Amino acid sequence: MTVNRFYASVLNAVKEDIRRSLLKRRRSLPEKVLKPLSCEINTHLANEIQNRDLKRILLYQSIDNEPSIKETIELAWQKDIEVYIPKVISKEKMIINRIRKNSSHSKNKFGIKESNDSDTVELNEIDLAVLPLVGIDINGFRLGYGGGYYDRFFNQGSELSRKPFIIGTGYAFQILEVSFAEGHDLKYDSVITEKGVLKF
Fold first, then answer.
1. Into how many domains does the chain fold?
2. 144-155 in b/e burial notation, b at 16+ Cβ within 10 A?
3. Which domain holds residue 169?
4. pLDDT per residue as tens digits for the range 59-111
5. Could you tell me which residues are beta bridge partners of residue 96?
6. pTM of the complete model
7. What CATH number should be reported for the domain holding residue 149?
8. pLDDT tens digits, 151-196
């Protein structure tokens, strides 16, 4: 095994330990705690939306005690901003479908709601993307569930004429004072927790 492969193997093991620990802590949060935390996060997101000229935004449907951003989705609709959410097509491919108030949904294999709306757009047509996280390192790099869907989807950014501003949402305990980024990891432009906005 080469030094680089050994380093990558060790780093992956470290990231997996961090992932398990953070998920365990998040899953232990009771509903009475989750609601006010999500409320604070939506308040900060509202400020970001109010201060930007947005036509299309990419949001998400929360699972597994992720911050709920239903209030942000409602705000976007009120402001006539087109809202899109991710849809997993295969192990290697993800697209983004529009979600409207009357859109029907289906759950994917991860239990995440996806829109059945036929309208899709390319990433370079999105102005702002708001994505969940499991953890974030000291330099703003995202730790997800390990599937790499967001990493692959957003790494096409170098080929795009423009890319969206990317905001991560999570809880304050998910921001870590360590560096664990690999070359393929997605970097956020800013992260919002219940305590405010952190810019990178």
1. 1
2. beeeebbbebbe
3. 3-199
4. 999 999 999 999 999 999 999 999 999 999 988 889 999 999 999 999 998 88
5. 86, 121
6. 0.91
7. 3.40.50.10420
8. 889 887 556 678 899 999 999 999 999 998 887 889 999 999 999 9
